[in-house]
Amino acid sequence: MTVLSVLPDELRVWQAPLRDEFPIIAANPGLAYLDSAATAQKPQAVLDAVQTYLTTGNANAGRGTYPWANRTTALIEHARDRLRAFLGDPEPDRSGVHFVSGTTEGLRAIARDWLAGVLRDGDEIIVPFADHAANTEPWQEAVRLLAGRGVRVHIRSMPYDPAHDYDNARLAAMITERTRFIATTHVHHVYGGDMNVSRIRAVAGPDVVICLDAAQGVGHLPLSVAELDVDFVVFSGHKAMALPGTGAVWARNRRGPRFEPAGWSGTPNTAGIVSLTAALDWLERAGVDRIERWTVALGARLTDGLRRLPAYEVLGCQRSLAADSVVQQRHGIVTFRHRRIGSNDLGFILAAEGFMVRADGHCQAEQGEETASVRVSVHVYNTVEEIDRLLELLERLDAEA
Ligand code: PMP
Fold first, then answer.
1. Separation of 351 CA from ligand 1 center, angstroms?
2. How close is the Cα of 215 to the center of ligand 1, in Å?
3. What is the pLDDT of residues 57-103, one digit of tens each?
4. pTM of structure
5. What confidence tens digit (pLDDT) does each residue in 122-173 have?
6. Is residue 1 part of a domain?
7. Mapping DSSP to helix (H, G, I), strand (E, B) and coil, where does residue 185 land?
8. Which of 132, 137, 185, 331 maximizes ligand 1 atoms within 8 Å of its Cβ, making it the mutation to test the pocket?
9. Which end of the chain has the lower number of beta carbons within 10 A, N or C?
10. CB distance 104 to ligand 1 below 6 Å
11. Measured from the CA of 185, which atom of ligand 1 is nearest?
């Protein structure tokens, strides 16, 4: 058993009352929700914040002269400041925070409303084609749009090593004076690896714009924009314990023109934005560093267990776990296949036993896995007992199939 997979008592004592703060989890003790990479459950504090807002001061923002409207406007401004603080923004006066419906919309807005206006004939961009399709298609669309105007931009494919980490040596060889933009991911949504984004800045040099898809990072591990030295951070609020239909683009506005989404965006998702502030407050109160230790430990425990069962193949970041290394640490996402039972069937078997997992291709872009797999993804409300019960079932299937 790796050191990572053993949970100290101090963490167990910290986690137990936090789990009780999630009404949907508390109401379903027989079920194990193991699909937090798809969307996270919401703590009572987030539900209360939405309820309070809607029952005491619901109004449109930036439009009124009366107290509820002014308060809503202030809540949205506060949400921007809250996010800047959460991300450790070193220059909050310069950066922009734009609320969007999620990562997909945020990345598309950057591609359409910023990148397409910045790129020139002969420029190059680097895109991670084994990551989520939401982080490849918008860049391809921008390049197609420019091609229609006679501007040729080359898309280079982010190189990976066999463990699915970014291969920084090959990346370094790819950077030229025409490299303008690199799209990256904080934590891989299939393999669970921390993609070590701070190394990319060292490789890319000071002038290249780096855009971070933090859909699986926010709320799971500390994220400092100063440390990672990135220009854009995009994430989905619903994966960070806020309501669906929320998300944000943080833009540092340090390289190139300011990012401003084009067009009139209409009424903001006020209740959703309120939920986002409450979620960030909750995450910070719980302690993102401890959430990271908890979910890494659960992921390592599952990986260790699966490795002892010959019928299973675990995908991605093998090397790092074996050495307990932080080089490419697996976060709370473990994806695997049974060598004889199809992944979709395995998903149904697990669901029938009360385990909610995802079984498909996980929206990976064109260099992704060729066949379906089962993904288990955990958050702070999951327990060692759930992982051990899952492993018992997987062990039975190992022997039977
Ligand atoms: N990027 C990554 C890494 C993701 O995991 C996801 C969601 N699975 C997305 C982007 C898209 O997020 P959303 O559907 O909330 O827009």
1. 23
2. 5
3. 999 998 778 999 999 999 999 999 999 999 999 999 999 999 999 99
4. 0.96
5. 999 999 999 999 999 999 999 999 999 999 999 999 999 888 889 999 999 9
6. no
7. strand
8. 132
9. N
10. yes
11. 3
Decide whether any atom of ligand 1 lies within 6 Å of the 102 Cβ: yes
Instruction: Please tell me the distance between residue 148's alpha carbon and the centre of ligand 1 in angstroms.
Output: 28
In which order are the strands placed within the sheet that holds 312-314? 312-314, 333-338, 373-377, 358-360
**Nearest ligand 1 atom to alpha carbon 103:** 16
CA of 57 to the centre of ligand 1 (A): 31
User: Same structural domain for residues 260 and 271?
Assistant: yes
Residue 134 CB less than 6 A away from ligand 1: yes
Long-range contacts of the stretch 170-176 (C-beta < 8 A, 24+): 171/126, 171/200, 171/203, 171/204, 172/203, 174/126, 175/203, 175/204, 175/205, 175/208, 176/124
Strands (E), 326-370: 333-338, 355-356, 358-360
One domain for residues 109 and 220: yes
Please count the structural domains in the chain: 2
CA angle 135, 141, 146 (to 5 degrees): 130
Final residue before a domain boundary, out of 259, 286, 313: 286
What CATH number is associated with residue 214?
Answer: 3.40.640.10
State whether 215 and 352 are in the same domain.
no
Q: Are strands 232-236 and 209-213 parallel, antiparallel or unpaired?
A: parallel
> Which atom of ligand 1 is closest in space to residue 101's alpha carbon?
16
Whether residue 210 lies inside any domain: the answer is yes
State whether 318 and 332 are in the same domain.
yes
CA dist., res. 356 & res. 33, Å (int): 5
